[in-house]
Amino acid sequence: MNDNSTTSPQTFPPIPADDLQRTLIVARPDTDAGLRHIGLVGDTYTILLTGEDTAGRYCLIDMHIPPGGGPPPHRHDFEETFILHEGEVEATFRGAKSTIKAGETIHIPANAPHQFHNVSDQPARMLCICSPAGQEQFFLEVGVPVATRTAAPPKLDEAQQAAFRAKAEALAPQYRTELLPPA
């Protein structure tokens, strides 16, 4: 038996040069007046990093979910990760419900139906990473500006809720999102 099996080192392309046009970003959601706080479906979402900040790789959103809050069932063609910092939420993934508590992380694969809902009596706070970026633009287009990270969005009556839903459904496809009927 001839043993001439030598392993040659694997080569990888070089790491690109540092892009000096990109800068360090520090997001301070409770004090940074330049951050945008968006009221949406009863929740408040603070845009910490946009696709513009990350060369389109991802966006980062600080979510304040009051008791009873959370989006309707939906799905989209991008990855989404939630890191729960405070409180707890009930996550529904492909019809199965799970309780997610502070300190836990869930990941939603692209295209999978899901939603989350705060069923507790305390607010929940989580970070949401969407990759690639773009979801933050959808939130900015359909939501309403609010003053702070925890400010409640205006209450909507039935007609306003129907108008919001119609606007969200009309815009969703351009942001690779599909709103689903309630389970």
From TrEMBL:
Coiled-coil regions, chain positions: none
Pfam families, sorted: Cupin_2 (PF07883)
InterPro entries on file: Cupin_2, QDO-like, RmlC-like_jellyroll, RmlC_Cupin_sf
PANTHER family, alphabetized: PUTATIVE (AFU_ORTHOLOGUE AFUA_8G07350)-RELATED (PTHR36440:SF1)
Name by which UniProt lists this protein: Uncharacterized protein
Upper lineage: Bacteria, Bacillati, Armatimonadota, Armatimonadia, Capsulimonadales
